[in-house]
User: Which sequence fits this backbone?
C-alpha cells in the first residue's frame, strides 16, 4: 500500500519544525543576557552594542521578507537545512569570538538565519496543513518561537552566573546541531497530491 511508504509521520515533521523555532527563539532570548558580559570583556561602547543589535533585527526582517523567494530558488528542505547550519555557525562564532568583530558577525548570521527559519518553517507548515488548520499551525509555531525567546534569558542567566557567557552560544549551537540532524533525517517535501493532508 502506498500509505506504508509515505515517509516520516506528519506529526513528527511538525514537531521538528516547532523544535527549530524553539531553538532559534532560545538563541535570540539567551543572547540578550550575554550583552553586558560582552560589553565588559571587549570594552565596547553602547553605540556599538546598539548598532549590532539593530543590525541583527534588520537582518532578521530582511530574510523574513525574502523567505518566499529563497524557498522558490532552493526549495523548502534545502533552505531549512542551510539556514539552520548558518544559525549554528553564528552561534559558534559567538562562543569562540576573540574580539568584537567575530562576535558581531556571529550575531548577524544568527539574525539572518532566524528570519529565514521563521519564514520557511511557517510557510512549509501552513502550505502542508489542511486549510482549516492553517491558522492554528501559525499560532502554535509562533507561540513556540516566543516560548524559546521567553525561556532563553532565564537559562542564559543561570549559565552566565555559574559558567561563562560563551557557554550560552555553545548551548545554542549544540541545540542547533540536534535540530539539524532531525531535519535532515525526518523532514520531507511532500508531493503535490498530498499537500492538503501532510499534518493530519
Assistant:
Amino acid at each position: 500500500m502506498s500509505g506504508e511508504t509515505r515517509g516520516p509521520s506528519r506529526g513528527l515533521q511538525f514537531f521538528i519544525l516547532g523544535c527549530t523555532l524553539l531553538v532559534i527563539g532560545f538563541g535570540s532570548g539567551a543572547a540578550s543576557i550575554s550583552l553586558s558580559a560582552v560589553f565588559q570583556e571587549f570594552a565596547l561602547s553602547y553605540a556599538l552594542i546598539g548598532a549590532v543589535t539593530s543590525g541583527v533585527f534588520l537582518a532578521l526582517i530582511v530574510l523574513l521578507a525574502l523567505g518566499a523567494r529563497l524557498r522558490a530558488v532552493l526549495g523548502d528542505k534545502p533552505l531549512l537545512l542551510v539556514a539552520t547550519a548558518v544559525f549554528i555557525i553564528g552561534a559558534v562564532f559567538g562562543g569562540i569570538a576573540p574580539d568584537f568583530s567575530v562576535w558581531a558577525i556571529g550575531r548577524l548570521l544568527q539574525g539572518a538565519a532566524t528570519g529565514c527559519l521563521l519564514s520557511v518553517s511557517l510557510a512549509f507548515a501552513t502550505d502542508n496543513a489542511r486549510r482549516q488548520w492553517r491558522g492554528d499551525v501559525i499560532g502554535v509555531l509562533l507561540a513556540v518561537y516566543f516560548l524559546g525567546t521567553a525561556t532563553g534569558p532565564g537559562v542564559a542567566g543561570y549559565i552566565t552566573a555559574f559558567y561563562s557567557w560563551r557557554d550560552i552560544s555553545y548551548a545554542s549551537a549544540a541545540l542547533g546541531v540536534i535540530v539539524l540532524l532531525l531535519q535532515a533525517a525526518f523532514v520531507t517535501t511532500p508531493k503535490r497530491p498530498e499537500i492538503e493532508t501532510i499534518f493530519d
In short: Residues 1-5, 191-200 have pLDDT under 50 and may be disordered. DSSP finds six helices and no strands in the chain. The longest helix spans residues 10-41.
